[in-house]
Specification:
8-stranded mixed β-sheet; 308 residues; alpha/beta; 46% helix
Length: 308
């Protein structure tokens, strides 16, 4: 009888842990509005605070350009939105933002770099962000299919050589897409501040944000993630995808990034035998490498992207 009581107690604990983890995951996968960084006052209350005036001015500058609104349909029937700016036809780039952010926020300054060099630019809204439909953020597991479709769209519509540039979750999304291969030619990928897998982010946030022990919350949380976002939440590996990618890669990371487990970018590069260039920006926090040192970032892009 005692054994039955013990088993019942363990089951109750497991169910409680599952319920707590499921709720936390649902909250973190829920869409959230990106901060309006065009307002410097708002920017000063975010992680962009050290660069508030700069990022605000850059976003306002982007908004003066003749963007076109364009749409495609996702593999699961969502209407996805992007802003398109035509270039000189020699090169085009798809810019993929991060978690609960926007293309304007994550590519303020970077977009101007590409535009000044005559690139056609596709500034996408990831699913469940901006004007794109979607009820859940799946940390790249579903988004990777969207990026594959956007790449095909950009090649057909903007022409020239095609480059992909992702920041944070956007970088992981692009790398996971590359691991499966693209339906069109992609000439190179820039991965800025990528995590190594959705599960690794879960494990890190469980301890850092919620102060919960990894066991039993991470194993049970992985199961909850699979129920919400599908089996790739547990099996999806950005490390494995990076190793399988056929395209040249440029890795970027901030040396003061505390939003990801330490060494995340180095692990991705090591999976490819260390053959790809890497830019490590001293003093840069998560996904703020351009704003910290735009000159070094621009030099790295110049070296990575040869003249057409």
């Amino acid at each position: 009888m005692l054994i039955l009581y013990i088993l019942a107690a363990l089951l109750a604990v497991c169910l409680a842990v599952f319920a707590v983890t499921f709720i936390l995951l649902k909250l973190n996968m829920r869409p959230g509005k990106a901060p309006e960084l065009a307002d410097a006052g708002v920017a000063k209350r975010t992680r962009w605070a050290p660069y508030a005036e700069t990022v605000s001015a850059l976003i306002l500058e982007l908004r003066t350009l003749p963007w076109e609104d364009v749409y495609i349909q996702s593999f699961d029937g969502l209407r996805l939105h992007a802003k398109q700016l035509r270039g000189m036809g020699k090169d085009s780039v798809v810019l993929v933002h991060g978690y609960r952010s926007s293309g304007e926020n994550d590519f303020a300054g970077i977009a101007q770099y590409y535009i000044s060099r005559g690139f056609g630019v596709l500034l996408i809204d990831q699913r469940a962000h901006g004007e794109s439909e979607g009820r859940e953020i799946s940390f790249g597991t579903r988004e990777r299919e969207d990026v594959r479709r956007w790449a095909e769209y950009a090649q057909g519509e903007l022409g020239g050589r095609l480059w992909l540039h992702g920041v944070s979750m956007g970088a992981a999304t692009v790398l996971m897409a590359a691991g499966e291969g693209f339906p069109c030619r992609v000439d190179g990928i820039v991965a800025d501040s990528s995590f190594t897998s959705p599960r690794d982010v879960l494990a890190y946030q469980m301890t850092k944000q919620y102060h919960l022990p990894q066991f039993p919350f991470v194993p049970i949380g992985t199961l909850a993630g699979m129920l919400i976002a599908g089996r790739d939440f547990a099996l999806g590996s950005v490390v494995r995808a990076s190793a399988a990618a056929k395209e040249p890669l440029l890795f970027v990371c901030g040396l003061e990034d505390r939003s990801l487990p330490g060494g995340s970018t180095e692990k991705l590069r090591e999976a490819r035998g260390g053959r790809d260039p890497i830019l490590c920006v001293p003093g840069a926090k998560h996904a703020l490498c351009w704003l910290r040192d735009p000159e070094a970032y621009a030099r790295a892009l110049d070296e990575f992207i040869p003249e057409a």
